[in-house]
Amino acid sequence: MNEQALMDIAKVLVAGDKGLLAMDESNPTCNKRFAGLGIPQTEKTRQAWRELIATTPGLAECISGAILYDETIRQRNKQGTPLIKTITDAGIIPGIKVDAGAKDMAGHPGEKMTEGLDGLRDRLGEYSQMGARFAKWRAVIALGEGIPSRACIEASAQALARYAALCQEAGLVPVVEPEVLMEGDHTLAQCFETTEEVLRAVFRQLYIQGVMLEGVILKPSMVLQGLACPKLETVEEVADATVKCLLRAVPAAVPGIAFLSGGQSGELASARLNAMNLRFKSRLPWALAFSFARAIQRPAMEIWSGRDANVEAAQQALLHRARCNRAARRGEYSAAMEATGA
């Protein structure tokens, strides 16, 4: 393990007010989103969509790294060039999703456990040889009556830590993603309590497994009320709760925190990230960045709709959302950016 190289990559991923673009949707997830927009669910259309993203002019101004899926890292563009080379040549660091998805947890109804540790060392070695420089593993934590259980939290934290240790062994920066899901009617306070407990468990396990925190990126969910909660918290209340929770649970050695969007709209995710940086940036030990998927991709996918004639307009929409999030990192995002498309 080259500690300095890992630290350098981790710093670059959250430097320059940039963030990560999560384009690592599994084939079933990508097909589901295509189906909702009437786009054919084929390998060819998935390749076309990913090429659209990778060739968006100016994307590297806002995006430092792109998280890919196994199919994507092996795909080529229309000219036969590997997509990973297109991404690298654009000045974006390629990463790879390495978990095998969340499955029902035995003995714990309503809870999930992420699989994929078997054979991970060999897969990480292959991805590194292909050009990946970081990886991502997602754990999912549901809130509800009697959940999350201690068993789910501890098992998820241990899996994240074992994955992270294997990543660093292979020379890849681990992006550690413990997602507290938005589904449910839980309050902001309940989400705060669970998120703090989950983060403490994760960092305890990272310490036990000997993971170097200076070479890790944390990808958490924001502290949010459930989608079915009748009380809608303000942008400022979400920002305050999220930062307070992170300060309690995330060591200062971590170079950056790149939030997932978790189903938030692009505008709301940008506004909440902006509020955190506007109010707290100068007082925080780590950078607050983004690692959004739908919150950046959705408008562009709707415009594209699988048609070659719409590629340029879709790329402009993708770049706009990326620019909004870079502005949010600076604390300079505003609704006026949406109105003008600036």
TrEMBL record:
Catalytic activity entry: beta-D-fructose 1,6-bisphosphate = D-glyceraldehyde 3-phosphate + dihydroxyacetone phosphate
Keywords noted in UniProt: Glycolysis, Lyase
InterPro entries, per database record: Aldolase_I_AS (IPR029768), Aldolase_TIM (IPR013785), FBA_I (IPR000741)
Top-rank taxon: Bacteria
UniProt-listed GO biological process terms: glycolytic process
EC number: 4.1.2.13
Keyword Zinc-finger: no
Transmembrane segment boundaries: none
Pathway, per record: Carbohydrate degradation; glycolysis; D-glyceraldehyde 3-phosphate and glycerone phosphate from D-glucose: step 4/4
Enzyme's top EC category: lyase
One MF annotation (Gene Ontology) recorded for this entry: fructose-bisphosphate aldolase activity
Coiled-coil zones: none
NCBIfam families according to UniProt: FrucBisAld_I (NF033379)
Family: Belongs to the class I fructose-bisphosphate aldolase family.
PANTHER family per record: FRUCTOSE-BISPHOSPHATE ALDOLASE
Protein's name in the database: Fructose-bisphosphate aldolase
Origin species: Candidatus Gallionella acididurans
